[in-house]
Amino acid sequence: MDAALFYIFAAMTLIGALLTVTRRNPVHSAISLILSLLGIAGIFLLQAAEFLFAVQILLYVGGVMVLFLFVVMLIHLEEAAKLRNYTRQWPVAVVALLAVLIEVLAFLNAGLPGLPPSPSPRPLLPGNTERIADALFNTYVLPFEAASLLLLVAIVGAVWMARKKEVAE
Amino acid sequence: MNFSPITTGHYLVLSAALLLIGSVGLLMRRNVIIMLMSIELILNAVNINLVAFSRHWQQVTGQVFAIFVITVAVAETAVGLGILIALFRNRGTVLSDEIDLLKW
Amino acid sequence: MVNFVSNFWWIPLYPFFGALLAAVLRRYASFIAPAAIGASFLHTLAVVYSPRGGPLEHTLYQWMPGIAFRFLADDLTLLMLLIVTGIGFLIHVYSIGYMAGEPGLWRYFACLNLFVFFMLLLVLASNLVVLFAGWEGVGLASYLLIGFHHDRPTVNRNANKAFLYNRAGDAGFLLGTLILLSAAGTTEFKDMNQLGASPLTFLAALLLALGATGKSAQLPLFVWLPDAMVGPTPVSALIHAATMVTAGIYLFARLAPFLAANPDAGLIIAGIGALTALIAATIAFSENDIKRILAYSTVSQLGLMFLAAGLGATDAAIFHVATHAFFKALLFLCAGNIIHALKGEQDIRYMGGLRHKMPWTFRLMTIGGLSLAGFPGLAGFFSKDAILMAATQSPVLLATALIVSFITAAYTSRMLWGIFFGNYDRQAHEAQATTLHTLWPLALGSILAGYFGPHLEGAWPIMLVSATISIAGLYFGRNVRLPEFLQIFFQRKWFINDAYETVLVGTVTKRGSSALNWLDNNVIDLVPRASGWLTTALSLISGWLDRYIVDGAVKATAISIETSSFPVRLLQTGRTHNYALVIALSLAATFGWYWLQ
Questions:
Q1: Is residue C221 classed as helix, strand or coil in its secondary structure?
Q2: What is the pTM of this model?
Q3: Best C565, C569, C572, C575 residue to mutate vs chain B (most B CBs within 10 Å)
Q4: In this structure, are residues C108 and C150 in contact, taking their beta carbons and an 8 Å threshold?
Q5: Are B102 and C572 in contact (CB under 8 A)?
Q6: C582–A contact, CB cutoff 8 A
Q7: What is the mean pLDDT of residues A4-10?
Q8: Which band of pLDDT confidence, cut at 50, 70 and 90, is reported for residue C132?
Q9: Is B84 on the interface with A (CB under 8 A)?
């Protein structure tokens, strides 16, 4: 059962990702990205990370992707969509990425057998959210505060960047 | 169904594949919006990796880290889209080939 | 009480300090200078009349091996000291009156004292080097004193002439000294006199004799003495009659044994002396200027002294030095009185009948003149006979000496007749005070000095002959007129001076100035010109270095950086996806490198 779910969610993720990077129309790309993110949310759920599953849906899909769609609609991209889709460097990129792929797989192949086994079989532990909260507000309170500062900066920055220029009097 | 049990390794492979696809989008697409979306994909791949290991070691640290990644990704997306809009207003294009003012 | 004998070497110091003092306390110079000489004279007397065992010696300082500052006082020295200090004192006193009112009088007295200092150094010398120091010093003093009236036309030139002819002789003196130094190892007279005959000593003797001809105004270097008469008359009296010019004879006397060892050199000296005596006597007969007559007379008499010394009779020569000092000084000083009285007139053709207006001068000058002419009984008679006795060794020299005696008497009488007799009407006043009374001792000496000289054995024939000649000459001198061409020849001084002037002086001054010009342009200016050229060349090189090397280095750096950065520049495409590609490639490379480990 686990396996099946894993493969279903994995397929969702990968297919969505592939579609994202290949579509001409940015709106299609955005929709495909939503699909991919949903797949990832599923993966999280399979890993018993319920909080993250919820956060992924709420934030990523509900926030980021909506934002993306807003921007896409804002920018009139029909003419651009008719032009060449891929950069001129794509052969080199393909080669590089293939190399990376092979290397990563080789690493995994070499490393995985040596992976120490997990301490206990994989139960579904209760209180995931509480545990995260506990960790977040005790051990990792500093990064937490820093993150909030980062968000502040990002908000201010985004607002500033996107503002309309004042008309000179 | 008798698939092999899903080990941590599967998740890692999945994460690697997602990373690669995201990189392809980043390197090979001209449209800046698509590039930003590809960056999201990469970040999510990292999240999958973190969560997998969090599960493997029976600790919550990985998930906490993943929360921070998401936070940063959101902030970065917001700012990036703001830049994109400003760029579009100034240059009239969202194609990265044509945005090369810092060229030699 | 000071021991005058052992401190005999102080004698030159009085006039030395006298000169310094006179230069400092100028108002009292005319008192200081004579006082200094007086002190020297007194000290000399003290030494003479003290008992001493043999010659006195004193070494001040051993300078080099063979050369020392050393003094010697034997009988010869003491005689010379007496003459120099005695007559020097008289002339100093005479100068007080004669030179009164002259501007720069302190210079005169200071130089005069300086002269006496050097002369005393000369006669007190124990070796050739100290003698040479005095020798040069008197030459310097002579130059200074001849040039005393430096604002008059020919004075400076004549002073230079005197000095330069002296120096020419000094070159010979120095060479001779060096040869003897190398031959004997020292320059002491007693060692010189041990040297035997050799080609080297013969040469040295001739060179020393050359020096003597410069100092004592003989051939070939005598032409300076007549021109030196532009100096003040007392100077002519002291330096150019009584003392400096006798330095050459003194040298011969000192080196008498040495000369005796080189009789050929002695003969040459004697021959020079005789020839000079003859030439000078003839010229003296044709001169009209009082002082020049006396000057040529001095040259002629010195020639006779050379004659005697060369033949080995240094006693006779020194005897004549002594008597000549008396009567020649007397003659010069009387001439000075006449010139003063006639307000500067020196030409005897414009004089006459002075015996009434200047009776004492007349008498004194007559005494001196008769002594010069060798009138029997006077000092000059005896000393000249001594010379004639020595000259009997050679018929030629004897004949020359007799002719010279005749002419001497002739020109003397011509001079005396011209001055004191006749009817030329001029205002003149007799000499007074110091300019008169200092002459008495000289006159006395001119009369009596002859009786203190060396005894002459078997001299009666000679005495008779010379007496006859003397009287005859005195008689003829009044009236004899020479044929025209001889007159001119003698008046032009046998053209010797003219020859010197054209050949030496003309060449040197003309060629000399162009040579100096060349020297100035090419040698002296060489340094600035060379440095200018060098600076230009260096600046050209520096400029080239700066343009091509220094700037080149800078440009090369710039160009190299530009060139090497060009490919790197191309990496900056400005396109983000290119940069991302670089990241991916780097990642691949890094993984690959780790994979291959």
A1: coil
A2: 0.60
A3: C575
A4: no
A5: yes
A6: no
A7: 92
A8: very high
A9: yes
Closest CA to C438 of C383, C378, C381, C361: C361
A104 interfaces chain C, CB cutoff of 8 Å: yes
* Cα–Cα distance, C402 to C296 (Å, whole number): 17
CA distances to C174, C207, C209, C501 from C171, rounded to whole Å, are 5, 8, 11, 20
Q: Encoding tokens for residue A56?
A: 């992924």
The answer to whether C591 contacts chain A (CB < 8 Å) is: yes
Nearest neighbour of C578 by CB, restricted to A89, A97, A106: A89
CB-CB neighbors (< 8 A) of A162 in chain B: 81-82, 85-86
On whether the CB atoms of residues C44 and C81 are closer than 8 A, the answer is yes
Spatial distance between the Cα atoms of B82 and B84, rounded to a whole number of angstroms: 5
Cα-based distances in Å from A16 to A29, A33, A98, B21, C87: 9, 6, 20, 10, 148
Query: Mind listing the pLDDT tens digit for each residue in B4-30?
Result: 777 888 899 999 999 999 999 899 888
- Rounded to the nearest 5°, which phi and psi values hold at A139? -75, -40
Tell me how close the Cα of A64 comes to any Cα of chain B, in angstroms. 7
Best of B7, B71, B83, B97 to disrupt the A interface (most A CBs within 10 Å) is B71
Query: How high is the pLDDT of residue A169?
Result: 45
The pLDDT tens digits for B15-74 are 999 999 999 989 988 888 999 999 999 999 999 999 999 888 888 889 999 999 999 999
**Which pLDDT value is given to residue C114?**
92
Name, in order, each residue with C-beta under 8 angstroms of C585's C-beta and a sequence gap of 6 or more: A92, A96
Cβ C169 vs Cβ C215: under 8 Å: yes
Residue C315 CA, chain-centre distance (Å), reads: 25
What digits encode the pLDDT tens for the residues C446-493?
A: 888 888 777 766 667 778 888 888 888 887 877 666 666 666 667 676
Q: Using an 8 Å Cβ cutoff, are C125 and C72 in contact?
A: yes
B28/C575 Cβ within 8 A: no
Closest partner CB to C573 (pick from B29, B35, B100): B100
Highest mean pLDDT among C121-130, C175-184, C567-576: C121-130
Nearest to C577 among B35, B101, B104 (CB): B35
Cis preceding-peptide flag for C461 (omega within 30 of 0): no
Q: Are the beta carbons of C419 and C353 closer than 8 angstroms? A: no
| Residue C462 in tokens | 């000679």
Q: So what's the ipTM on this one? A: 0.89
The two three-digit tokens of residue C252, written as one number: 């011969």
Tell me: the pLDDT tens digits for C65-118?
778 888 888 888 888 899 999 999 999 999 888 888 888 888 899 999 999 999
Q: What is the mean pLDDT of chain C?
A: 84
Amino acid present at A11: A
* Residue A152: Cβ within 10 Å count: 11
Cα C30 from Cα C434, distance rounded (Å): 12
Exposed (0-12), middle (13-18) or buried (19+): which is A112, by Cβ within 10 Å?
middle
Residues C328-361 pLDDT 10s? 999 999 998 888 888 887 888 888 778 888 888 8
- In whole angstroms, what is the distance from residue C30 CA to residue C23 CA? 11
Q: Which of C577, C578, C584 sits opposite A100 (nearest CB)?
A: C584
Query: Three-class SS string for C354-402?
Result: HHHHCHHHHHHHHHHHHHHHCCCCCHHHHHHHHHHHHHCCCHHHHHHHH
